[in-house]
Amino acid sequence: MTTLTTPLLKTNLPGIPLLNRGKVRDVYAVDDTRLLFVATDRISAFDCVMPNGIPDKGRILTQLSLFWFQRLRDSVRSMIVRNHLISANVSVYPTPLKAFRDQLEGRSMLVRKLKIVPVECIVRGYLAGSGWKEYQKSGSVCGIKLPPGLRESDKLPTPIFTPSTKAENGHDMNITVPEMAAQVGNRTAQQLEDMSQQLYAAAADYALMRGIIIADTKFEFGIDVDGGNLILADEVLTPDSSRFWDVEKYEPGRAQDSFDKQFVRDYLESLDWNKEPPAPTLPDEIVARTREKYLEAYQRLTGKALA
Question: Can you list the domains of the chain with their CATH numbers?
Answer without folding.
Answer: 18-112 (3.30.200.20), 117-273+292-302 (3.30.470.20)
